[in-house]
Design brief:
This is FAD-binding protein. By secondary structure, this protein is of the alpha+beta class. It contains 16 helices and 19 strands. Among the domains are: about 5-90, Uridine Diphospho-n-acetylenolpyruvylglucosamine Reductase, domain 2 (2-Layer Sandwich), CATH 3.30.43; about 95-215, Uridine Diphospho-n-acetylenolpyruvylglucosamine Reductase, domain 3; about 220-325, 2-Layer Sandwich (Alpha-Beta Plaits), CATH 3.30.70.2190. The longest helix has 20 residues, at about 390-405.
Length: about 475
């Protein structure tokens, strides 16, 4: 970056709010995604909407890219710098501006940590359901940018189901406000839903309005162990067929169970093929009825053992089995590549079995876990990025996993986003007209391509599109 441009940035936000030492640039050269890294030219900490607006205007004039970033927990490379870019660090915009109990809504800044918002609203008897696995560190702005899911997605939905309004700075520096506290509002295009999941490519969020709901009165947590994957998958389908929609329905395979037990020492059996974690919540009478139905179905489908939590502390212990999955697997090898494939629920067992077959075909160590109720799995390969031969096998493995996912009517990402990591897959698997429409929206709002340049797709049209068949 031209030193004069960097000096102009310092004039806008103040020198103390620009980090440009080699050490600072290295710290912000990566996020939660393996195999991707690039140093930014600087890390910029804006103090006001005016600062962001002026930085956007300067980026258009001087042709550098602006990469919005929260806590950097993303798993698709969405906040990784590109060549000639700055990081726009938003994690210090961390105020809960308002909790409106009358309208069941909350205004927050984008840097608010998800778990802190949940704790704050629960103190008032309210509930914000989206709960990504990184909820203790990830930010609301990042959740909205990636349209994050979580363990409670089956019953309560994902981030987009709770966003009522957004204020953001456009790539040309203008402030736009969309949505509000009206429960019904169909005036014009739904710009709010357009930018949810846009991965920082269409605007920089400065304030977000979220819907809240009453906090469930009680809950009941169950943990079931199976000797056959098919029995676990059949349990998922049959529970839903009984018109029971648990708030949580999670799956762990044998490799993941072993790693969790080695890490957390929860007393899990390590000779089973699958584990299901289920939770129902709501009115006490409904919870008791649904828990009884789930336990009956689990036992009918040959669950070796079903544990039912009797206290909140015991429930938290059972849920640790799922929340510790990623960190437990990551202990085994230097590089952990966690991906995100989603299929219709009816095809989940096929995807799980096929993924296991492919890991054996390519001789890879893999654990699989995820949101069984959503059909959303996280095949996780344990490898070493210094082993180039094994990385080639990893690439072939995920290529076939996603080919199989698409054949089963699925999608290449259910909650992690496209970013850099899945940019190639998006270009291969999406219809050309849909890809062209995305490009047109991006070019219309950001003609100079300054905001999160190079993420999701390339602007220059290529011979891309959905594969035949």
């Amino acid at each position: 970056m031209n030193p004069s441009v960097l000096n102009k940035i310092k004039e806008i936000v103040g020198s103390p709010n620009v980090l440009d030492s080699d050490e600072d640039r290295l710290v912000y050269s990566y996020d939660g995604t393996p195999l991707h890294q690039q140093k930014p030219e600087a890390v910029v900490i804006p103090q006001s909407e005016e600062h962001i607006s002026r930085i956007m205007q300067l980026a258009n004039e001087a042709d550098f890219s602006v990469i919005p970033r929260g806590s950097g927990t993303g798993l698709s490379g969405g906040s990784i710098p590109v060549e000639n870019s700055i990081i726009l660090l938003m994690n210090r915009w961390d105020k809960i501006v308002e909790i409106d109990s009358d309208n069941l809504m909350a205004w927050v800044q984008p840097g608010v940590v998800t778990a802190k918002l949940q704790q704050a609203v629960e103190q008032q008897g309210l509930f914000y359901p989206p709960d990504p696995g990184s909820q203790n560190i990830c930010t609301i702005g990042g959740n909205v940018a990636e349209n994050a899911g979580g363990l409670r997605g089956l019953k309560y939905g994902i981030t987009k189901n709770y966003v009522m309004g957004i204020e953001m700075i456009l790539p040309d520096g203008r402030l736009v406000k969309n949505g509000g506290k009206n429960v019904k509002d169909v005036a014009g295009y739904n710009l709010r839903d357009l930018v949810i999941g846009s991965e920082g490519t269409l605007g920089v969020f400065t304030k977000i309005l979220l819907k809240l709901i009453p906090k469930p009165q009680t809950s009941r947590t169950l943990l079931a162990f199976f000797d056959k994957l098919g029995d676990a998958a059949e349990s998922v389908s049959e529970i839903i067929a009984h018109h029971v929609i648990p708030c949580t329905m999670e799956f762990l395979d044998a490799t993941t169970i072993q790693c969790v037990e080695d890490f957390a020492h929860l007393g899990l059996p390590t000779d089973v093929r699958a584990l299901l974690l289920l939770e129902t919540d709501g009115h006490p009478a409904v919870v008791e009825e649904e828990a009884a139905i789930m336990e009956k179905v689990l036992r009918k489908n040959n669950a070796r053992e079903v544990k039912v939590a009797q206290t909140a502390a015991e429930a938290d212990k059972l849920k640790t089995a799922r929340r510790a999955a990623f960190s437990s697997l990551a202990r085994l090898k230097p590089t952990t590549i966690l991906e995100d494939a989603t299929v219709p629920r009816a095809n989940l067992a096929t995807l799980i079995e096929r993924t296991a077959e492919l890991s054996r075909k390519y001789n890879l160590q893999m654990g699989n876990f995820g949101h069984a109720g959503d059909g959303n799995m996280h095949p996780t390969v344990l490898t070493d990025e210094r082993n180039s031969e094994e990385l080639r096998r990893v690439e072939k493995f995920f290529n076939e996993v996603y080919e199989e996912t698409i054949k089963l009517g699925g999608t290449i990402t259910g909650e992690h986003g496209v970013g850099l990591a899945k940019k190639e897959f998006l270009a291969r698997f999406i219809d050309i007209p849909a890809l062209d429409m995305m490009r047109s929206i991006k070019q219309s709002l950001d003609p100079n391509n300054i905001l999160n340049r190079g993420k999701m797709f390339s602007l220059a049209p290529k011979c891309e599109g959905k594969l035949p068949g």
